[in-house]
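User: I need a structural model of Guanylate cyclase domain-containing protein from Caulobacter vibrioides for a docking pre-check later this week. Nothing fancy, just the predicted structure tokens so I can convert them on my end. Input:
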Amino acid sequence: SPPVEVSLAAHDGQALAWIYRNGRVLSRYDGPGGEVTLVARLDAQALGRFERQFPSARVSAAVD
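Assistant: Understood. Predicted structure tokens for Guanylate cyclase domain-containing protein:
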């Protein structure tokens, strides 16, 4: 599965833990404004579940 970039608030620990549990995190950047950006691999089914469960997270295709 192609990597995706996921941006979410640092205080959204549930979403963060979900990605680490259900995907493979390739990189993480903690921004100065309290936002966390992850590049991760999730299969299509897991990605769909994540987007339904955490609609406030921003998900986009990862850029090399």
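Before docking, keep this in mind: The chain has a mean pLDDT of 95.
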